[in-house]
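Recall the central idea of this unit: under ordinary conditions, the amino acid sequence of a chain determines the structure it adopts. In this exercise we apply that idea directly, starting from the sequence alone.
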Amino acid sequence: MSLTEAFRQRTAPQLQLGNRFRALPRPAKWSLSALLIAALYLTPYWPDVPVLGWIINTPGTSFENVLTDQIMMFILVALGLNVVVGFAGLLDLGYVGFYAVGAYTTAVVTSGQFTLPWIAALPLSVIMAMIAGVILGTPTLRLRGDYLAIVTLGFGEIIRITANNSDWLGGPRGISKIARPPSIGPLQFGVLNAKPYWYLGFTVILIVIFVLTRLENSRVGRAWAAVREDEDAAELMGVDTFKFKLWAFAIGAAIGGIAGSLYASKVGFINPDNFQLQLSILFLAAVVLGGTGSMYGVIMGGFLVAWIPERFRGFATRRYFVFGVVLVLVMVFRPQGIIPRRGAAAGIAKKGESDV
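Accordingly, the structure predicted from this sequence is:
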């Protein structure tokens, strides 16, 4: 049996499940979606469920803190990076730079001499991250492939080194006393209660998914798909490839800025060591592992990349070996990702049928 045939057999049930869901009446789809969203809002309580708790438990650390400090952030940045890598087909190895810009913007304007509330710092973080995306993209997006990857990798390191060498950014000491989101009724944002951060973060994730879904199905999304599949052909057909690639960088950077702002407000302290190059590699791994171009796939990828090392913390330093083995196995048996983009999965399944 060929690898293509094996993949077709593993992908067919997924396609059938998706087709069955889309064939349901609208009230049934809305009801199932509402139940799923409600269950996800209750994620901090999952460890209390007997069997499920044993599966997702993170020994040695609180699952709530892992959920808000890592899983939530990885899901958000994976969604943002997926716009660049999955929708537009651009390889970005410096995405941590946008994440850092969002975090540092929130830290600077909510501590020290500015002391703005977090609710005012969030849009500023988004704007600054978008500006960073435009500044990076304008001179570099005429490059392709490995050359673009090298330039973006350098951008991530430039942001970290600049923060490390700038006194007004705290230098290596970092910035502390970062403002937290405003408390609303029973939602009290503090150090000891992580649940409100998950409710806020998951709401932001839902909004991002809604916006990206609309973009993917719009003229902009179709232009991104054309650039991803064949940039030269897209340009010959009249697509302004540079403009749409710049849009992808700006929108992806904005989502990274949101994630950075949420992270800074949750931990209350940041320094340049929080934004190492390895984070960019892990962000990209989340996108590839989940399924490049698939929003629900990258959500799963973000969850796994953040959760697996914590779940196997009992292995001490060997947990990273276990994490690496899991990534290799997934890439061997699911080369298109855990939940591949529907068009890609259907295309491979169709090709497998023609090969039989």
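The chain has a mean pLDDT of 86.
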